[in-house]
Amino acid sequence: MLDAPGNPGWQQTLTQAWTRRGLLAWLLWPVSLLYRLLVSARLALYRAGWLACARLPVPVIVVGNVVAGGAGKTPVVLAIAAHLQQQGIRVGIISRGYGRSTQACLEVTPDRPAQEVGDEPALMQQRTGAPVFVASRRVQAAQALLTGYPQTQVILSDDGLQHLRLGRDLEIGVFDDRGVGNGFLLPAGPLREPWPRHLDLLLHTGAHPAFAGFQGQRNLARQALRADGSTLALADLAAATRLGAGAGIKPLMALAAIAQPEAFFAMLRAQGLTLAKTLALPDHYDFGSWSCNEYKGYSLICTEKDAVKLWPLEAQALAVPLQFVVPQAFWQVFDARLEALLSAHTPTKTLSLAHGHKTA
User: Fold this and answer.
1) Which of 132, 134, 143 is nearest to 58 (CA)?
2) Tens digits of per-residue pLDDT, 250-274?
3) Where does CATH 3.40.50 sit in the chain?
């Protein structure tokens, strides 16, 4: 493992502390009580109407989690967007665009650098072709999206369970194998808000769910992508790397700027790939200090999210998409809820999700 630039050891220490109620967690517990007080007071102000919640003319679906760190929200958003598009529903996506270099409300377009809009929004626009807007205030992003694309029928919010300013019609909580960790709030634990709390649907992305909910299946695609859109089967790549330097094949170096890079490396190895080196980078790393020459002796392989920033610098890098298969039982409940929401927002039409068409 190579050292990760900008990834201080205290972050790893804190993440490990969040898995159990050890000494460090208990030392930080008094601070978490103050955090709980602030979160509860803010929620009370919204419930009392002292802070306004903006309602939009179309259904808003928030896909988020209650713990800090990635749990697989973006693959879930992509799966839901694809599901809606297959039903002929016009969907738009909003996001904060975490880690971007700009602050303005922006539309994510193919010609706009990922550094300006965020790697995940850039990936979502690339994969879905749907309108995607980013803003620090998700209400602003949603309003800009509806202004630019007034025919939008559903808005998907990538993250934002705690962004109470934006009214929502359906909340989907995403969890991985960590569940809620040690059950403490930040900074003593990973919780962003007190748990348990109501969620309309719970979706687990890990192999070992910590509590009840729908369980999906997260895995790597069988093919890696090149910057020009061509593909390379992972089985062929594994066979080539086994031949080694004697056949003129460069050793393989995997890199990942995600919340849990080791999980990605493990998935690559499970596909038979021999990784000569791995590089764990901070989540949403902007590659501003990336040096191609430093790693010119290796063939690079990365996540699809990282590729939107890496390809302009290293066009030969390979990207492996992460796929998430949602169980059919989830879709049955989701479609029933969404049909009711769409009917409520468009009372003159009845939407048949089961058959993927609208009837007047």
Assistant:
1) 143
2) 899 999 988 888 889 999 999 999 9
3) 54-218+325-359
In this structure, are residues 203 and 326 in contact, taking their beta carbons and an 8 Å threshold? yes
Is the separation of the CB atoms in 107 and 148 below 8 Å? yes
For the record, the structure tokens of 231 come out as: 């593909």
What dihedral angle (degrees, nearest 10) is formed by the CA atoms of 249, 271, 77, 229? 30
**Residue of 176, 190, 175, 178 whose CA lies nearest to 25:** 190
Distance of CA 168 to the CA centre of its chain: 18
The CATH number assigned to the domain with range 54-218+325-359 reads: 3.40.50
CA-closest candidate to residue 254, choices 236, 275, 281, 228: 275
Q: What is the pLDDT of residues 33-42, one digit of tens each?
A: 999 999 999 9
Q: Give 8's pLDDT tier (boundaries 50, 70, 90).
A: very low
Token output for 172: 């989907």
Please spell the DSSP secondary structure of 97-137, one letter per residue: -TT-S--S-EE--TTS-HHHH-HHHHHHHHHH---EEE-SS
CA angle, residues 257, 127, 341, in degrees to nearest 5: 110
- Res. 72 pLDDT band, cuts 50 70 90: confident
What pTM value is reported for the model?
0.88
Structure tokens at 44: 């009370």
